[in-house]
Amino acid sequence: MNLLRFLATSLRSWLAATLLGLSLGVGCASPTHPQPASPDRTPGHSSSDASIDEIRVGEKITVYITDIPRPYTHQQQVREDGTIQLPLDVVVVAAGKRKNELQEEIRKAYVPKFYNRCTVVVETEERFIYVDGQVRQPGRYAFTGEMTVLRAISVAGGFTEFANKKNVTLIRPGGKKITVDCKRAEQDPRYDVPIFPGDSVLVKRKFW
Q1: Domain coordinates of the chain in residue numbers?
Q2: Which parts of 54-122 fold into alpha helices (H)?
Q3: In 10 A of CB 113, how many CB atoms?
């Protein structure tokens, strides 16, 4: 009887030790789940930085083409369709490109079709917009990238109490005029018109 009791106790101890060992083994060997890669975030850089550097419709640019028999200096405003026309009837898309990208595209347009080699340099003017009329701080303001009529008015201190929000005029450098209903644009951003370097915003006075 004592022998049976001893065997039963020994068996229970062995089973308990075995189960404990298995549970510890499972805990140590838990599967490792791959972590999703964190997005690449470079300090001080954002997606908007690139857009600020891009050449815009209406912007004046100067193109220097050298290392050719007769060097060119060509100044032009980027047209509504985003293109510029250069000497020898060369047309390239300028809007949406950085200066170094446009330089390379112009070079490829001339080499080897017209010249064996050439050097192209593109310069842009300082970028400004103009806000006048019934705003609190009329004046010239730096163009800082993605801007709209409402954003320009906000930069100029906002509307005065005499402003006619329904009849704001956007004037492009070429003289084209666009009427903007800013009261409607405040309710629906789809009606807020983008502006470009050289544009002028005129807020008219309302009459009761």
Answers
A1: 50-124, 128-205
A2: 99-110
A3: 9
- Dump pLDDT digits (tens) for 56-66: 887 889 999 99
Find the helix or strand (DSSP H, E) in which 201 lies.
strand 200-205
Residue 136 near residue 157 (C-beta atoms within 8 A):
yes
Q: State the distance between the two ends of the chain, measured CA to CA, in whole angstroms.
A: 114
**93, 83 in Cβ contact below 8 A?**
yes
CA distance 14 to 25: 17
pTM for the predicted model, two decimal places = 0.54
CATH number assigned to the domain with residue range 128-205, chosen from the 4 options 2.60.40.10, 3.10.560.10, 3.40.50.300, 3.40.190.10 = 3.10.560.10
Q: What percent of the chain has pLDDT over 70?
A: 75
Nearest Cα neighbor of 138 from 87, 90, 204 is 204
